[in-house]
From TrEMBL:
It comes from Nocardia mangyaensis. Residues 38-268 form the SGNH hydrolase-type esterase domain. InterPro entries: SEST-like (IPR037460), SGNH_hydro (IPR013830), SGNH_hydro_sf (IPR036514). This is Lipase. The keyword Translocase does not apply. The lineage of its organism: Bacteria, Bacillati, Actinomycetota, Actinomycetes, Mycobacteriales. Keywords: Disulfide bond, Signal. PANTHER family: LIPASE 2 (PTHR37981), SGNH HYDROLASE-TYPE ESTERASE DOMAIN-CONTAINING PROTEIN (PTHR37981:SF1). GO terms for biological process: triglyceride catabolic process.
Length: 286
């Protein structure tokens, strides 16, 4: 999500600039399209700077052990990983910055598998979570003063998401698209690692991710994509879980430096669900 990634991307650029060739070009677009293409934002791109892929555009903060790369390893496929931190749906079509090609450029008639995780930035999830829930914890919290604008912004991504799925199908007519939603971040209680977040606000934040999942799942079903429910599998592994098990780092991030972003355990968990869905679809046996 955007606010955290603006800081971490700048740090990553400074740390890695000395070992990345100057004048790096945008990632080339294969004429026929890669067989497996990964699209999305930081939820798919990163596990933090500890596993930074310095061959990728630095502002994307893309990981060497993110879910797309783990899926590719399990399926013995090469992946054209175009995921990029802070990405919004329009960034699928246009360059997100210098050296970053539009994500959809990776698609083509040879593409068979597409994974897609995007939409949280379009719905301004970070801005509401930080600006209302965490900032307001000392004065009653966000659940007690629910802002209907948050729901409106979540619901408003539906047309753009639908159009993106249609464009993926147009560019890669043979591809099966696997859409993974947002796993369990919080349940009905908070914890010290969330630095004062109220219990009611923990449940409230999760309800917004659940609403986002409902929007995306609906568009996936309507446009022929396979939707993966990641909430159930991650129910016991939210930000207040044992650090060795949790799928996301809390505010006191000790694994990724990125609160509300997936740990390696989280990326492994999502990757396993995607691998199972790909196997069940039979796409690799065509």
């Amino acid at each position: 999500m955007k606010s955290w990634l603006r800081v971490i991307a700048t740090t990553s650029m400074i740390a890695a600039a000395a070992i990345v060739p100057a004048g790096a070009q945008a990632e080339p677009a294969p004429a026929a399209g890669a067989r497996y293409v990964a699209l999305g934002d930081s939820g798919a791109a990163t596990t933090g700077v500890a596993e930074l892929d310095v061959t990728a555009p630095l502002r994307c903060v893309r990981s060497t052990v993110n879910a797309p790369k783990l899926v590719a390893e399990r399926l013995d496929l090469a992946v054209d990983d175009r995921t990029c931190s802070s990405a919004e749906i329009p960034d699928l079509y246009t360059s997100q910055g210098p050296g970053i090609a539009p994500q959809l450029d990776a698609l083509g008639p040879a593409t068979e598998i597409v994974t897609l995780h995007i939409g949280a930035n379009d719905a301004d999830m970070t801005e509401f979570i930080l600006g209302q829930c965490h900032a307001g914890a000392a004065t009653g919290g966000c659940a007690a003063a629910a802002d209907p604008e948050w729901d409106r912004r979540i619901d408003a991504i539906a047309p753009a998401y639908a159009a993106a799925l249609d464009e993926i199908a147009r560019r890669a007519p043979r591809a099966t698209v696997f859409v993974d939603g947002w796993p369990t971040y919080l349940t009905d209680t908070s914890c010290p690692a969330m630095l004062g977040l109220l219990d009611a606000d923990a449940a409230y934040i999760q309800s917004k991710f659940d609403r986002l999942n409902t929007v995306v799942a609906g568009e996936a079903a309507a446009h022929g994509a396979v939707y993966l429910d990641t909430v159930t599998a991650s129910r016991e592994f939210g930000m207040c879980a044992d650090p060795a098990l949790r799928w996301f780092d809390p505010i006191l991030a000790d694994q990724t430096l990125l609160p509300y972003h997936p740990t390696l355990a989280g990326q492994r968990g999502v990757a396993a669900l995607i691998v199972d869905a790909v196997a069940a679809s039979g796409v690799l046996n065509r």
